[in-house]
Specification:
The complex is a heterodimer of chains A (241) and B (277). Chain A has one domain: 2-Layer Sandwich (Ribosomal Protein S5, domain 2). Chain A is 27% helix and 31% strand. Chain A contains 4 helices and 9 strands. Chain A has a 5-stranded mixed β-sheet. In chain A, strand 1 and strand 2 form a beta hairpin. By secondary structure, chain B is an alpha+beta fold. In chain B, strands 1, 2, 3, 4, 5 and 6 form a 6-stranded mixed β-sheet that branches. Chain B has a 4-stranded antiparallel β-sheet with strand order 10-9-11-12, with helices on both faces. Chain B has a two-stranded antiparallel ribbon with strand order 7-8. The chains are: A alpha+beta (241), B alpha+beta (277). Chains A and B meet through helix 1, strand 8, strand 9 and helix 4 of A and helix 2, strand 12, strand 13 and helix 5 of B.
């Protein structure tokens, strides 16, 4: 197996086990969308657009008591090492579903009956953890669209590489490592909205990874807030929550 | 996946009723909160398949069939065999199932079951390479859901695991001319350990194990954890647009640990029975 952590405890991209990749979040990057965002997390580059609340097509999907949230996670054919055929894969369909289920608890959909809210995530470049970066960016785009929200949603993975628990796995660590556990939380309500696990963790490693992922989410949440504040209140100082 | 049609008013009434009942630690079918329904398992029921299993969890019934064929490896794993898990909720499975390509629920179902088997390293795929980089054995597991009454995830997982563990195939080998041949010797797949999936639903503040359709219709969130033979977690998935508290996740891992052991005995019992016959 490939050595993913060197004798100094540094990972292949030079990070410590509990260090996030460089993160950049922008708000309002697409003019036509009601809300939009762009995120870079390591080499992940994802653009998210929110359209809605709007009329539902097809009409039979409409709900009398709340809005219908629809998500589409899609990877550009050029986003991966080998070309990804443009039609949605089974993986993309599953990820679209879990992203929708991760975002929905934060949205006050009951305020918009008989409407639809569409969230489109386009992965321009994938680098491990694209669903997490996508969720983080989607919450920002939904806030930018002015959708009523109970809390933000922020996501990050923890996992295991070369026997150690690490956070925010990159492409290589995701593929070569022993485990990958993406989670999403509502940081103020302290609720888990996404949980997936792929790979073996002992009960002790699981607890450690879970805690590290939550802490990482809280750090990313500050970046989400700053991005929104920068757009709506100018580049002012943002204090800790 | 749900077999109970949702009407908003009825759904809300049912939910209130269910939460009230659960607060007294009772369920509609008189089970305890962490009790499974009766599980029955039968293997080797389809002669033309390499392995097969029918699993019933209460009224939920699924049938899994394994076909082992020679195939091309994935480019990123040239020296490993393939595992493909596919599920179909047949139109005969409930009044609300419809024919057509698998929807997102069926895709999630197959992918979560696949993840449990793959990540637990139940099948040693590296032993399934015939000509590395060119030809490998492909293990196709197709699971048909015959009747839905909740918890398709666990039923599908048990059927998948039992059908793989009891699969038989001729020994394949490469002769001196580089041709793939099969001998008369019948062997099993290279199996190491039995992963067990445990699915729980949160309704209100209560976690219950093995939800029925009625319980699934009102559940807030679902969490599935798969444990390997050593008691380690090897796959997991939260489902449904509801949340879990961090403590509920820890509670779920503790429940899953206990239940997985119980169910592993049932699955192993059936595998032993199959080996004797």
């Amino acid at each position: 197996m490939k050595e993913l952590i060197d004798e100094k405890g540094l990972r292949i991209d030079g990070r410590r086990v509990d260090e996030l990749r460089p993160l950049k979040i922008e708000v309002g990057v697409l003019k036509n969308a009601d809300g939009s965002s762009y995120i870079e997390m390591g080499k992940n580059k994802i653009v998210v657009a929110v359209y809605g609340p709007k009329e539902v097509h097809p009409k039979h999907q409409a709900l009398p008591d709340r809005s219908v949230l629809r998500c589409r996670y899609h990877m550009a054919p050029f986003s991966t090492d080998t070309r990804k055929p443009p039609q949605p894969s089974r993986r993309e369909i599953e990820i679209s579903k879990v992203i929708r289920e991760a975002l929905e608890p934060a949205l006050m959909l009951e305020e918009y009956p008989r409407t639809a809210i569409d969230v489109y995530l386009e992965v321009l470049q994938a680098d491990g953890g694209s669903r997490c970066a996508g969720i983080t960016a989607s919450a920002v785009a939904l806030a930018d669209a002015g959708i009523s929200m109970r809390d933000m949603v922020v996501a990050c993975a923890a996992g295991k590489a070369s026997g150690q628990v690490v956070i925010d796995l990159n492409d290589v660590e995701d593929k070569e490592g022993e485990a990958d556990m993406p989670i999403a939380i509502m940081p103020n309500l302290n609720q888990l909205t996404l949980f997936q696990l792929d790979g073996i963790l002992t009960p002790e490693e699981f607890e450690k990874a879970f805690e590290m992922a939550i802490n990482a989410c809280r750090a990313i949440y500050n970046a989400q807030r700053k991005a929104l504040m920068d757009k709506y209140f100018g580049k002012a100082e943002v204090g800790e929550e | 996946m749900s077999a109970v049609k949702k009407s908003i008013v009825v759904e809300q009434l049912r939910k209130v009723q269910m939460i009230e009942l659960l607060s007294k630690e009772k369920r509609l079918d008189n089970r305890g909160l962490t009790d499974f329904r009766p599980i029955t398992m039968e293997t080797g029921i389809i002669e033309k398949a390499n392995g097969s299993a029918r699993v019933q969890v209460g009224n939920t019934q699924v049938i899994a069939g394994v076909k082992i064929e020679i195939g091309d490896p994935f480019p990123d794993t040239p020296d490993k065999g393939l595992l493909v898990v596919n599920t179909e909720v047949l139109p005969l499975a409930s009044a609300y199932a419809e024919p057509g390509p698998p929807d997102e629920d069926a895709i999630e179902l197959a992918r979560v079951v696949d993840r449990g088997v793959r990540e637990s390293h139940m099948i040693d795929l590296s032993k399934l390479a015939l000509i590395p980089g060119k030809k490998v054995l492909a293990v196709f597991v197709d699971v048909n859901v015959l009747n839905t009454d909740g918890n398709l995830l666990d039923a599908t997982s048990y059927a998948t695991v039992a059908s793989i563990a009891t699969s038989k195939m001729p020994r394949f080998y490469v002769d001196e001319n580089g041709q793939i041949k099969q001998s008369d010797e019948i062997i099993s797949l290279p199996i190491d350990g039995i992963p067990v999936s445990v699915t729980m639903a949160r309704i209100g503040d209560t976690l219950i194990v093995d939800p029925t359709s009625e319980e699934e219709a009102v559940m807030d969130a679902r969490i599935t954890l798969v444990l390997d033979e050593d008691g380690n977690l090897c796959a997991g998935q939260k489902g449904q647009p509801g949340t879990l508290t961090f403590d509920q996740v820890k509670l779920a891992t503790n429940i899953a640990k206990v239940k997985a052991k119980e169910i592993r005995e049932i699955i192993k019992g059936e595998i032993m029975k199959d080996a004797r016959s």
